[in-house]
Batch of 2 targets.
Target 1
Amino acid sequence: MNHALLPSKQGATLPAKYEAAKLALKECNQIDECKDWGDKAQALASYAKQADDKEMEKTAQRIRARAVRRCGELLKEIEKAQGGVRRNQGGGVSPLVSRKQAAADAGLSPDQAKESIRVANVPEESFEAQLESDSPPTITNLAEQGTKKAVPRYEQLGMTKKAWQAGMHFRGHLSDMARHADNFDPQEVVDGSTPKEREQMRQNIKTIDHYMDQLIAKI
């Protein structure tokens, strides 16, 4: 596993590498590698919190949650087969091992193994939507959800699925817009645009203004 995708604390550019990290974790087939990802992401989230870098902290939290979930998914696969294949350093294959042994070999404590399985129990759609929201849940919160009967998050909140998804995604887009609003000087934006691009911006702003008027009236 190429952990270069998870940058050092000193030069972290996590948001730019997040999609690559998601893919790498999805393809990860070793429990110990997932744990390694989770440990590094947890350390990076702690660093980002101390540095008051909210975006890097949230992205590191998302990577850690995905690593924990992938651990749980792999452990659940072992349960189905009543044992799993363990590959040794020389590339050979050892006899089938129990889920408990596989977790221990990967450096997971019994509590960590149980937590990862519970996180893996959260329905994928709910997990993804919560993780990609502006306030990703903690591992503890996800694990608690995994102990309950699989009830969609939107039902738990008394919302329709369509409304829940709309709110989740729009709030994220709105936060992005608010975060970037002060990054560009309005005059420089205008000076750096062609007449055609300025007209397109004008039309987009009118559309946004109209939508915001409707949104504010309903909040």
Target 2
Amino acid sequence: MSFSPASAPTGNEIITQLILHNQLRDAHLEHYSVVRTYEVRNHDGKMSAEEVVRMDYRAPGNKTFLKTSEKGSGNVRRMVFDRLMESESETAAGREHHDSALTPANYTFTRIGEEDLGPYHCYVVQVTAKRKDKYLFDGSVWIEVQDFAVVRIVGHPAKKLSFWINRADFVRQYQKIGEFWVPYRDETIVHVLLIGEKVFTIDHEEYSINGRENLSSDSRPSMK
């Protein structure tokens, strides 16, 4: 679907197209694997912990993780990385359910303009959570105008994560590989009581999608 300048889409219309296009892409995604590098650094850039993992996904909901290297704080790796991967596996398999999808049931959407991110021309949509829930967020989403795919998300959780975490601000970047849009880089700045600022990143590389090995994007979104 295309929109003329005189009939610029509303936030809800953009999200409706996003949902439809995601369903079409998901129907063609049988399996993929990716190498992820999880890392936590202090505000001064010093590394606290790092873990390199190969994640394998098979439709409709199986995710497995294989660690290939790890270094730094064992506590950080157990409390942050391991718990994150365990939660992701349980959510994918349906054993744990968090309704955090970009849908009108969870959010209010307001189109606030258009912007280029690297090679991608995007609608920019302001997103406001309809309830205080740590699995929802308030922020902005950049959605590519032709594929109706998420290119970038900037925001923070709609509810405080814990007593110890004052705030968590994140940026999620996506890239197009073939017909699919997949994660490129996640960065979260966490402000922890008594400890200070921590920067948590996940880099996604060396994709294999539906049997095609070592895929990479020729162009990626702007990291600004």
